[in-house]
């Protein structure tokens, strides 16, 4: 929830503050977030004090990618910082970038890049909260202090644990083992609106289906 003024009152004006509610929290079927006529508010350049993005000071990701760029980002408070080595993130980026409407992603507003583990270094991992749900094959992470969603960690399974899963589940777990998907909204200086993100309909395709609280 937000309470404040989108347009600040003029000097001397007595203006009631506005209440804002995050429409991503409403139950499925009540609000179609992707279908809403959203207006964009440029808070980055209009809100004071000006925000200084926390800097990543860790080591460079090991991945070797021709013509790669080093992107850095963080949660809001700076307890978690991240580096992502990737081909240039712009409209010509040909690998998959996606928003997902599954029960969890739609609430957090992620814009996913499906990066490999070797492309990503996270500093401040001890400050990551972890949330496991659904099929319990992955966990979504977020900063424990400021709550900003960071990435998806693919969980490790032993041979014995894999052996008791269905073949379909096992194949999926093995196929994603090398990935470390990152929320592109945390990257400094990157406007996710400049990217060609596809829309993945996770709500209707991911199992088990979600029971709305
Ligand atoms: Zn934080
Ligand atoms: Zn999702």
TrEMBL record:
GO terms for molecular function: carbon-sulfur lyase activity; metal ion binding. Keywords: Metal-binding, Zinc. The keyword Zinc applies. The keyword Transferase does not apply. Residues 71-201 form the CENP-V/GFA domain. Belongs to the Gfa family. This is CENP-V/GFA domain-containing protein. It comes from Xylaria multiplex. The lineage of its organism: Eukaryota, Fungi, Dikarya, Ascomycota, Pezizomycotina.
């Amino acid at each position: 929830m937000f309470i404040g003024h989108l347009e600040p009152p003029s000097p001397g004006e007595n203006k009631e503050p506005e209440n804002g509610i995050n429409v991503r929290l409403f139950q499925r079927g009540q609000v179609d977030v992707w279908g809403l006529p959203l207006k964009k508010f440029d808070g980055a350049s209009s809100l004071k004090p000006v925000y200084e993005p926390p800097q990543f000071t860790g080591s460079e990701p090991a991945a070797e990618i021709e013509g790669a760029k080093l992107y850095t980002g963080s949660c809001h408070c700076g307890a978690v910082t991240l580096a992502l080595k990737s081909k240039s993130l712009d409209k010509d980026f040909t690998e998959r970038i996606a928003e997902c409407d599954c029960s969890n992603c739609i609430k957090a507003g992620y814009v996913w890049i499906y990066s490999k583990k070797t492309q990503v270094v996270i500093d401040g991992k001890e400050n990551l909260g972890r949330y496991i749900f659904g099929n319990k094959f992955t966990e979504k992470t977020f900063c424990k202090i400021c709550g900003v969603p960071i990435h998806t960690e693919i969980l490790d399974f032993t041979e014995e644990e894999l052996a008791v899963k269905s073949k379909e589940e096992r194949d999926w777990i093995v196929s994603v083992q090398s990935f470390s998907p990152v929320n592109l909204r945390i990257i400094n200086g990157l406007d996710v609106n400049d990217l060609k993100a596809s829309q993945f309909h996770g709500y209707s395709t991911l199992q088990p289906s979600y029971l709305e609280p």
